[in-house]
Amino acid sequence: MRKSDLPLQKICRSLIPLLLLYFAGCHKPDTGGSKDDPGGPGNTDANIWPSSPPAEICGNTKLLTGPDAAPAGAITVPAGDNSKFDFDRKGATFWLAPGVHTIGTDPLSQIIPADNTTFIGGPGAILDGRNVNQYAFTQRAVNVTIRYLTIRNFVAPRDEGVVNHDAGDKWTIEYNTISNNKGAGLMAGPNNVYRYNCIKDNGQYGINSCCGTELNEVVNFVLDHNEITGNNTDDWERKIDGCGCTGGVKFWINKNATVTNNWVHHNKGVGLWLDNNNRGFVIENNYINDNDGNGLMIEAGYDARVRFNNFKKNAVVAGMESARKGDYFPVPAIYISEAGSPRGFNLKTSPMLISNNNFENNWGGVVLWENANRYSGSSANTHQAGTIKMRSLYDDGPCKSGLPDVIPGSMPDKFVCRWSTENVVVENNEFKIDKATLGCAGGNFCGINGIFSEYGTYPEFGGYQIPWRITFQQDNVFRNNHYYGDWQFAGFEVTVPDGSRVSWSNWTAPAPPIPDKPTVDNRPKTFGQDKGSTYVK
């Protein structure tokens, strides 16, 4: 029987495991909040996290094998050297015959699709860069579809990508294996849909969803039912210390992205990393485990809805390395760094919501942090960017005075220059840890949740003003969570003055009044967090 482009059988096969998961294998956590709250029962129709990976794609030949004959009207592309093949045909469907396809010996040889074209691989069809070609599919054609191919051995430069190199609009990439490439396996552009792909063992990123501009934002990216594993094989963070240039998926200036039902695991760094002015994210029903770094990091950005995900054994590698160095900065499963949902800016989710997730034997849980010295135009910020409060995400000029790290006096409110960790609610989650299993029993490096900053050393936000703001004045709340095991907390600063952590009793005891003049002598000892939560050590 001839296979169509998108067989109904495959759709059914993909639904059956989800139905079984719903009826038999998923855990239903408690619900909470009001019906008007994004985390309340009025908005929790799924209300489950996956107990097993929802997207076991890699090696799944039933999902990844394409039609064994060319679909009606398709143009057959024979295996072998396709460097002279004419792919510049608008609206065409190309069927790549079984076997290995190459595109010549020029490093810049590439396939440039025309608008409305579709590429379908036959059984075992491979597009091989042979460690010579940098790119597979490039340029800015609209409405391109790529299915059932293995795309391997391309050598994109750092920060560039192999598939959809130029972030074209309305690309659909599904049922592919994209592996063993340098750089990023894929870039992403506006209105892209990436689903049911195996994105594995690429040199830098699995996907680099980069880079939106003021006139051409990356909007409405859908990432659903992909297996994203083993990426950053080149270990770029060690090659360029602090580059922030790795991850299973990296998002940079994206708006209204949907990240659902993916299996993100064993990446050599952060699993999902939202970096720089991302907003409007929905991150739900993913299984995120065994990533060397944080399972999820949201940095210098805005609102996200993070619900019904299962986080297991993330950040253990990074946490152990940090502990060996004697660094007490927590290494959590979810790390929020200068990000939140400030009111009054028409953000999609307010508050930013981290709810109804399972956290099990990660190095840490959820950390809300704000660098006192990082703001638009400061030397502690590593890229040129504005903030949503400045009404421009791309221009830091209004916050620069010409003097190092000084905001001009003409700026009526200097706090608009900050990415602030504010209006974040962490609720209805389960936090479980067995420190003996992790190898960190007896210390205070692992098993940390927290809200904190640091003593500011730059002129604009010096002293303890930012620690007080993030901890007590910016509507950051933990509530209605359930803790199992030896959890400790970081409040106000990384540790209390004697180097210990905040205890459960002090974390939950009523918060103190805000002092008129914060000093080293009136730092808080209690925090008023986790009302309605339970703690079983």
Automatic annotation (TrEMBL):
<feature type="domain" description="Right handed beta helix">
    <location>
        <begin position="166"/>
        <end position="315"/>
    </location>
</feature>
<dbReference type="InterPro" id="IPR012334">
    <property type="entry name" value="Pectin_lyas_fold"/>
</dbReference>
<feature type="region of interest" description="Disordered">
    <location>
        <begin position="507"/>
        <end position="537"/>
    </location>
</feature>
<dbReference type="InterPro" id="IPR011050">
    <property type="entry name" value="Pectin_lyase_fold/virulence"/>
</dbReference>
<dbReference type="Pfam" id="PF13229">
    <property type="entry name" value="Beta_helix"/>
</dbReference>
<feature type="region of interest" description="Disordered">
    <location>
        <begin position="32"/>
        <end position="51"/>
    </location>
</feature>
<protein>
    <submittedName>
        <fullName>Right-handed parallel beta-helix repeat-containing protein</fullName>
    </submittedName>
</protein>
<dbReference type="InterPro" id="IPR039448">
    <property type="entry name" value="Beta_helix"/>
</dbReference>
<dbReference type="InterPro" id="IPR006626">
    <property type="entry name" value="PbH1"/>
</dbReference>
